[in-house]
Amino acid sequence: KMRGTMVERVAFVLIVTAFLLWATVVLTVHRYVPAEDEVFPNLSERIIDLHEADQDIFRAADGWQNVTNLIIVAGHTIFTSHNFGIRTVNESDWYLESNQHHQLPTFIDHIKEGTRQLSLLPNSALIFSGGSTRPSAGPRSEGFSYWLYAHAQGWLRRSKAPGESRAQTEEFARDSFENVLFSVCRFRQLAGSYPRNITVVSLPFKERRFRDMHRAALRFPADRFHFVGVGPWTAENEQGELRFAVEPLRKDPYGCGGDLAAKKRRRNPLRLSHP
Fold first, then answer.
1. Is 69 exposed, middle or buried (0-12, 13-18, 19+ CB in 10 A)?
2. DSSP H helices in 33-92
3. Predicted TM-score (pTM) of this structure
4. Please, are residues 114 and 73 in contact by the beta-carbon 8 Å criterion?
5. Residue 167 near residue 71, CB atoms below 8 Å
6. C-alpha 269: how far from chain center
7. Do 143 and 128 touch, CB atoms closer than 8 A?
8. pLDDT tens digits, 145-170
9. CA dist., res. 203 & res. 211, Å (int)
10. 8 Å CB contact between 129 and 75
11. Angle of helix 104-120 relative to helix 142-153, nearest 10 degrees?
């Protein structure tokens, strides 16, 4: 009987202790944790404001209303000097790979042709595309180098369209496929919609790559995709393009593996990524 009484007393003490702990927790929470309307005043209004802010992605930026045609100039080099306004084309002012020497005038012609297309095509916008692909060039990008050069030469101001507002940059592309893909996405950010027509300005021997490989990979209609080739075209260029671009892209159209993926990694020395 004594043993039973002892068990009952222990059980009573445990019950009372548990009750006191529960009461302490409830009182503490009530005292120190504010009500929901105190933590988030006007919460419903803030949610509405955020929703309205998100709708900006469907609105065109200033000067981009009714823009339907995208012109892409794919970058190949980065300006490393300080004076973009110089008229003389000097290779020492640009970062050129060993196989790009004597091609600088062609790259400059790409910039100029892009601005010319902008003045010719109605409802068009121009995007200079290319990332920070050269380690010794620092954070300077191909796309921004091209834009600054075009601006310094006055080519954008001569455009019939609102040239400087409708000429923008895409600064994350690491290869020609991303030149197209990221430029389309950048167009979407600025115009609030995807382009109806795309025109790419690049080296002539790369037409097959852009028209048959990249366009097809993005499922973009062939009759609304245009290519403007500017520069020399030799049999050696054609053979190299077939071996190092067209054939690998047939097997891996998005460049996710092998040499194509390795090239992307090499062309992103600063480990940048698009937003």
1. buried
2. 36-39, 43-54
3. 0.78
4. yes
5. no
6. 16
7. yes
8. 999 999 999 999 765 555 568 999 99
9. 13
10. yes
11. 70
